[in-house]
Design a protein that fits this description.
The chain is built from three helices and no strands. The protein is mainly α. The two termini are 22 Å apart.
Length: 65
Amino acid sequence: MKASELRTKTPDELKAELLALKKEAFNLRFQKASGQVENTARISKVRHDIARIQTVLNANSARGA
């Protein structure tokens, strides 16, 4: 997911996406702890996507959008 794609979304869409990614990160942490995670690279991708969404949300709130 690119930051340019995120900037075109509304804050409500971003918050919904953020919630879904946080749930996925939670599930991946459980899978990692039990040794069942299949795609270990997905963990870092999810974390980076969460950070991107939070950055866009903070930038939008800082400029009053």
